[in-house]
Amino acid sequence: MNTDYRVRSIYSICIFVLPMFIAGCVPKDIDVASEISSYQQSVADRGPQLRTAEEGVDFLRPAPKMNMPALKSSSEEAGGKKTIVLSIEEAVQRALAGSPEISVVSYNPSIAKEDFIKAASDFDPAFFGRVNYEKEDNPTDSIFQGGQPTSRLWESGIKQRGITGSEWSMSYALVRNWDDLTTSTLSTKYEPVLSFQLRQPLLRDGWEEVNLAGVNVARINYRAALVAFRQRTEAVSAEVVSLYWILVQTRRDREIQQELLEKTGETLAKLEDRKDIDATTVQIKQAEAAVKSRQAVLVQVEKQIIDVQDALVRLLSDSQLNLLDDFEIIPSTAPATEETLPDTGKALDMAMANNPEMQQARLRVDVTRINVEVAKRQKMPRLDLVASARMQGLSRAQGSAQDRLNNGDHMSYALGISYEVPIGNTQRQAEFRKRKLEHRQAMSMLRNSSDQVATQVKEAMRLAETSYEEMHVQQEAVDAARIHLQALADTEAIREKLTPEFLLVKLQAQESLAGAERSQIKALADYNIAQVRLAQAIGTVLDMRYVRQALPE
């Protein structure tokens, strides 16, 4: 052998292994650079919300958040309560910055990312080695058999599972043997060995669609967890916005009811003043009953305000707004009164692409499709390519033995095919049929989700349109009721006698005006709530102006 050939022989295995080593490595990064993924990572990194105490009542009080501006609080006291002026942008900002509901689901994508890294790590190379010393003392009856052989082994190498299903290993071993065999040429000998082994499945367990299935499913699970996190973020944001407008409505209801109570009280006062003129006891008691009835309604409205405020505060979970302090929230953002609804066709098209339920259903279809491909490959017979190569040296001295290895004096090769054909193969056939049924089920779920989402979008559109029209109709009703009540007030001053019938009409007119005003503010709140519910059905809550402004950078 010439020197160049020997060098090529020695390193031919190494050169063959290098591409397999590079191709077998799977990247550990999931490239999902987006606003929602950055927000999710920041929430997960922040950890559980800090509280001012770990037990007791103070456990309900969140610790102050860093870089969070202070809320505007009024120096005036309202019924012994501190008043806090809150805009809708501030409400959403505080919810996104510290909502426990968002924090709970923020860990799921990070957990799914670790599962992806774990799945990709199955293809990482591994170093292995062993050291062994063995001494035997066997009885013998022949001079051609050694009775006391001794060996010392040191071996080290690298192995890896490839993305095509291959399993290869390359190792270097140095063995020293010595014995008491008198007929042996070398009583003490060194034997270095450089070996390479490869097994490549050609049918079952082979190729990327099978071996990368776990990695691809883990990647899809991460995307599904991120979609679920966005869904919860949008749900919390939509709930905050809805409660904000309900709080606007209930506070206006209280004002309307207080005005109604004052007007009824004025009517009662007038009757008592005319007690000695023409007001009867029946009329006075009728007015007193109306006052008490409207006081009872006002008590219920006060309760509704507290209930809505507590629900909103729970979602905000802020150190300045918590369930322990006694305060009153004054919304500062006025509801939208202009019609800004998208076209129904465009809204449905956006919902099919952006709705989280639709995205999760599509991801489930992708997972089942991968499982079908894996099951299809796994029901094939086993056919594996097996190859190995080995270079050896042998000498009395370690140096000369290594030289013989380097010279490539003794090289061995092996190449073969192994196969296995299962009889019947019923288990894998059943698995394949099962995976196909799961895929069909996922496709059916996707179609069912699309119909449900379309229904939600159309219902939200109709609610918004109905509320918008009702808002204007109720405004006309308010104007008419106000004119009617004013006309009664004008005629009351010139009436000769106050009759029970007139008093009843007046009390009913007051009630009608208050009812129309409450219906109008309800329609206005419903219209603004319908807008955010429509955005939630479409999957664009985070694109709404006051939500996007509140999303942490």
What can you see in these coordinates?
With 553 residues, this protein is α+β, with helices and mostly antiparallel strands. It has 2 domains: 3-29 and 124-208 and 381-427; 35-98 and 215-325 and 343-368 and 437-550, Outer membrane efflux proteins (OEP) (Up-down Bundle), CATH 1.20.1600.10. Helices cover 58% and strands 16% of the residues. The protein is built from 13 helices and 9 strands. The chain has helices spanning 3-24, 35-46, 88-98, 100-120, 208-211, 213-273, 281-316, 344-354, 356-378, 398-407, 426-492, 500-538, 545-550, and strands spanning 72-78, 81-86, 126-135, 150-161, 167-178, 188-201, 327-331, 382-392, 410-420. The strands form 2 sheets. A 6-stranded antiparallel beta sheet has the order 3-4-5-6-8-9, covered by helices on one side. Strands 1-2-7 form a 3-stranded mixed beta sheet. Helix 11 packs antiparallel against helix 12 (500-538). The longest helix is centred in the last third of the chain and has 67 residues, at 426-492. The protein is elongated and about 140 Å long.
Largest sheet, spatial ordering of strands? 3-4-5-6-8-9
Residues in β-strands, percent: 15-25%
What is the 3D shape?
elongated
By CATH, the architecture of the largest domain is named: Up-down Bundle
Mean pLDDT: 84
Q: How many distinct folded domains?
A: 2
| Secondary-structure content class | alpha+beta
> Rg, please?
41 Å
CATH topology of the largest domain: Outer membrane efflux proteins (OEP)
What is the H-and-E element order? HHEEHHEEEEHHHEHHEHEHHH
CATH secondary-structure class of the largest domain? Mainly Alpha
Poorly predicted regions are: 1-10
Q: What is the count of helical runs?
A: 13
Major sheet attributes: 6 strands, antiparallel
